[in-house]
């Protein structure tokens, strides 16, 4: 080895940190074996039963709920602030939103098996909505044959994965927690995750897409707007990405958060790659969306896939052996919801309401001491990707409460009956062989402002109390583990609504 090579090896080795047993080297000074939070995660068994791979039994969001249940969440959910699950509030009390059905008429057709591609009337309503919102004045228009109705977003992605040919499929992390688990079930293509750069705010950009194409990737999957960072691609960058991928790669866009757009003054404008499709039957652009998020009906399990007719025919066939199709009565009830003018009014009301909740959460986090910077202000979704290293002043090194990383912060919040999602669950398979502290998402948590304002206030109060305890500023009653006095701080109100129940964690997609 040359002298320069020797110097490089020496420099690299001096920058690494050796584990307590001397076996492993890491770029991060902390050793996960010294952290109870990390050992609890590692202790989840995967070999109790020879036929069970328990690593596939739950996503990170479900794991957080399981841990919270050990602290009493399932017993008294009304006393908890569940800011972990990715679900919007489902009530009818959002000003300007249309009332949700409380009962559904069941037609004779609704008693029969439905077509695996969905009923024609709903497929036509989806196509009409996309043409009205995104394709006015364009020669190429979607028809009912460009739409497949599926029983939820997971089912939609599984159908897509089932019909993909031999290919390299690229997806970007951090992203939705179940992508990797779903994609790894299939062997007809190779799924390759690509990490995004923290310096770019974990945004996708054109150069990253160009790199994927250069290494032979022919299918790209991504969420836009993005879970968990809360950002959407700029319209011009989205258009350029579609231009350079045209006839080179199939683009699969998870657009479930398309309605939560705060970048256009809450005027009801939504985001979709459908705007940039040149020919609806030639451009390999597959769009997944549904009633779950922007229509606030997660329990209905009605979603759709929009794309070229050839893809839709294949997806219809795969439904016959994968899921059997979507509930027909709910499809029939959904048709009248998709009238374009009605949807526009709905989106305006949705955006105003959720922007108010976003601004409240960001304001409280800033008051607590998290100074995240402009790039961390979400312009879409209902998520805040909170960088714990931005806390100022920082927690003393000798603090008995560790909140320096997402897992430790999560466990500390359980004492305050508050649930968030540690950032590592949006990274690739972090609980296996790789050192948890080496994850670029390790010092993040995802906070959802999907729940009602009462729950957000409870959760931010819990976060404030944890930070105060970590700084040694807490008083005798600054924790939910004690009985609190009747007086409430005007700056940090604790809302107690006995009739309010948090959403139990049963998954979030879509």
List keywords for this structure.
alpha/beta; three-stranded antiparallel sheet; 13 helices; 11% strand
What does this structure look like?
The chain has 510 residues and is an alpha/beta fold. The chain has 13 helices and 14 strands. The chain folds into two domains: 32-86 and 382-471, Alpha-Beta Complex (Aspartate Aminotransferase, domain 1); 109-340, Type I PLP-dependent aspartate aminotransferase-like (Major domain) (Aspartate Aminotransferase, domain 2, 3-Layer(aba) Sandwich), CATH 3.40.640. The strands form four sheets. A seven-stranded mixed sheet has the order 4-10-9-8-7-5-6, sandwiched between helices. It has a three-stranded antiparallel sheet with strand order 11-14-13. It has a two-stranded antiparallel sheet with strand order 1-2. Helix 6 (179-183) links the parallel strand 5 and strand 6 (190-195). The chain starts with a helix and ends in a 39-residue tail after the last helix.
């Amino acid at each position: 080895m040359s002298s320069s090579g020797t110097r490089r090896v020496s420099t690299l080795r001096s920058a690494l940190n050796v584990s307590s047993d001397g076996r492993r080297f890491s770029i991060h000074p902390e050793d996960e074996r010294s952290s109870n939070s990390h050992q609890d995660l590692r202790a989840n068994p995967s070999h109790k039963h020879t036929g069970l791979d328990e690593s596939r039994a739950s996503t990170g969001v479900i794991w957080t709920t399981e841990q919270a249940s050990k602290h009493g969440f399932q017993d008294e959910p009304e006393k908890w602030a569940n800011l972990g699950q990715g679900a919007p509030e489902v009530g009818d009390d959002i000003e300007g939103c249309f009332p949700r059905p409380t009962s559904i008429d069941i037609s004779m057709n609704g008693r029969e098996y439905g077509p695996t591609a969905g009923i024609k009337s709903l497929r036509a309503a989806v196509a009409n909505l996309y043409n009205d919102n995104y394709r006015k004045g364009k020669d190429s228009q979607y028809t009912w044959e460009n739409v497949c109705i599926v029983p939820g977003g997971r089912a939609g992605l599984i159908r897509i994965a089932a019909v993909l040919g031999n290919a390299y499929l690229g997806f970007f992390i951090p992203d939705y927690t179940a992508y990797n688990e779903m994609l790894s079930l299939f062997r007809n293509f190779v799924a390759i995750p690509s990490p995004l750069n923290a310096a770019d705010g974990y945004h996708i950009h054109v150069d990253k897409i160009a790199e994927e194409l250069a290494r032979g990737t022919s299918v790209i999957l991504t969420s836009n707007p993005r879970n968990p960072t809360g950002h959407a691609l700029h319209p011009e960058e989205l258009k350029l990405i579609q231009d350079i991928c045209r006839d080179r790669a199939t683009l699969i866009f998870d657009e479930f958060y398309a309605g939560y757009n705060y970048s256009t003054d809450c005027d009801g404008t939504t985001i979709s790659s459908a705007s940039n499709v040149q020919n609806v039957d030639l451009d390999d652009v597959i769009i997944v969306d549904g009633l779950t998020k922007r229509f606030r009906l997660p329990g209905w399990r009605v979603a759709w896939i929009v794309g070229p007719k050839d893809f839709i025919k294949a997806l219809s066939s795969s439904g016959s052996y994968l899921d059997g199709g979507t509930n027909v009565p709910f499809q029939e009830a959904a048709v009248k919801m998709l009238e374009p003018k009605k949807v526009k009014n709905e989106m305006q009301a949705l955006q105003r309401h959720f922007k108010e909740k976003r601004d409240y959460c960001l304001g409280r986090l800033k008051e607590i001491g998290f100074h995240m910077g402009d790039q961390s202000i979400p312009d879409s979704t209902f998520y805040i990707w909170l960088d714990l290293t931005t806390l100022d002043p920082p927690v003393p090194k000798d603090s008995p409460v560790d909140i320096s990383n997402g897992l430790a912060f999560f466990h500390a919040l359980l004492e305050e009956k508050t649930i968030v999602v540690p950032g590592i669950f949006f990274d690739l398979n972090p609980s296996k062989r790789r050192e948890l502290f080496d994850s670029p998402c390790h010092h993040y948590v995802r906070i959802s402002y999907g729940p009602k304002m009462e729950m957000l206030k409870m959760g931010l109060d819990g976060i404030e109390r944890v930070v105060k305890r970590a700084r040694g500023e807490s008083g005798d009653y600054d924790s939910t583990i004690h009985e609190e006095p009747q007086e409430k701080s005007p700056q940090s109100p604790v809302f107690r609504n006995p009739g309010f129940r948090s959403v139990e964690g049963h998954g979030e997609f879509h």
